Structures are given as structure tokens and as C-alpha cells.
TrEMBL record:
Superkingdom of the source species: Bacteria
PANTHER family: ALKALINE PHOSPHATASE LIKE PROTEIN (PTHR42709)
Listed transmembrane segments: 12-32, 38-59, 71-95, 115-138, 145-166, 195-219, 226-246, 258-276
Similarity-based family: Belongs to the DedA family.
Keywords of the record: Membrane, Transmembrane, Transmembrane helix
VTT domain: residues covered: 129-246
Pfam families: VTT_dom
Annotated protein name in UniProt: VTT domain-containing protein
InterPro entries (UniProt xref): DedA_domain, VTT_dom
Taxonomic source organism: Fictibacillus phosphorivorans
Amino acid sequence: MTDTFSRKQLTLELLLHITLTSLTLVTLFKLLPTIQPVFKLFGIGLAVVIVTFDLVFLCKRNLQIFKITRLIALYFFAISMIVFAIFYVTKLLVLTDMYGFENLLRIHESAAKSIYLAICFAQPIILPLPEVVTVAAASAVFGPFTALSLGFLGTLAGIITMYFFARFGGQHIVSRFVKEEHLSKYKSYVQRNEVLFLAIMFIIPVLPDEIICIGAGLGGVAFRRFLLIAALSKLFTATIFAYSVELAKIFSLTTTELMVYASIIAGFAFIVTTLIKKNVRQKEEG
């Protein structure tokens, strides 16, 4: 049909435009019920523009117009997804703050486990909810073992996703703003101290998990080592949070005190282990 596109390619491109535009309109009209009517009208107008450009392309066979249409459709869809994510994350945070995460799970009892698993997955990616809030609340609803199992699996899946996003998607972005020399120095530091650094960061809530995952992905930490450290660290914290009530009763401590002491012990253990390994390595080299 054109010198640039075959009939099959053109059909697929048009289907892509129609799909993206349709999904965006569904998001605006069905999934964002409280959005202002003016934005819905703007969405309809933009959809009309996309369709018009596509028709112009079909008539004039102008590839440049088709590229513009594709960009508009992609940006239109991306913006709607960002608004969608912000809307529902904010709504979830408001519900959690208003009713408590435990009550949120009890209200949606039939889908509670799926909600909990999805939230645990989103925590290391986009959701700024403390792990202690979600796991402890789930423990009260499902019991410690189920809360531990689902929380561990969901969080670990989110951590892996964020790691690969930073590893393969973030490197190009960061290279535009950070000198290669500085990035190499950062990688060298992380590689020398990665076990101690990552374990302490995952266990002691100094930085959000998403920052740790981005740092590890950009720092060139090997995936197998990262996965092992993340799995052991999150298994430790999820166990502490899930069984916090039982452990607090045994040791006559509050949940906060229990977590503080556990973090101190874990951090001390990792430091001692690292120092021992370093000492052994120095003796072998000497």
C-alpha cells in the first residue's frame, strides 16, 4: 500500500493506534470516575485528532504524519496510565490511613490475599507503604505463616522487577546525567562492599527498597548475588513482622522494640561476618 509499510505492517500499526486510544478512553471514562469532565472532553478531542491524522496518512501516504500519530497515541496512553497509577495509589494510601490496612483486608475478605500480594509486589516499585504495616496487618487477618509466605513472594517479585528495570532501563538514562568515571567508582565501591551494604539496607529501613534496587541495578551487582541477599534479608524481615505479636509476647517487648533489636543484631552479625571474611582474605593474599 505504501513504499515503506507492507499491508500487514500498516494493519498492525493501525491496530496499535486504535488499541492505545481505546484503552486511554476506557481509562478516562471508566477507571477514573472522579476526573473532571473537561479532561474527558480533552481526551475525546485528542482521540479525534489521532483518527484524523491516521485518515490523512491513508489518503496522502505520508510517513511523517503517521509517526506523529504514533507518538501522540503513545504519549496519550502513557499520561493516562500515570494519572491512573497516581489516582489509585493515593486512594489506597488514604484508605490505609483512614481505616487501617488490617480493616482494608477484612472489608475485601474474598479478594484480600490477592490485594495483599499485589500490594507487596508494588511496595518495592511505586508504593510507599512500610513493610511492617502490611505484613503485621496481614498476619492478624490471615495468620503469620500465610502473611509471611505471600508477603515474601510478593516483595521478592517486586524487588526483582525493580532491579531489572534499573539494570536494563535505567543505565541509559543515568549515563546522560552521570559521568562514566563517577559511575565506575560507584560500581567499584558497591562491588567491594555489596553483601554488607545490601543486607543492611534491606533489613534496616534507612532507604526505601526501590532505591536499593535501583542502586544495585545501576551498580552492576550480579543478579544471583543480589537475589540471594534480597531473599535472605526479606525472609528475615517478613518473619519478624509476621510473628511480631508472638515474639513480642515471648520477649516482653513492643513490636517497635523487637524490630529495632532485630535490626541491630542482624547488622552486627553481617558486620562481623564481613570483617572475618576480609581478615581471612588478607591472610590468604599475604
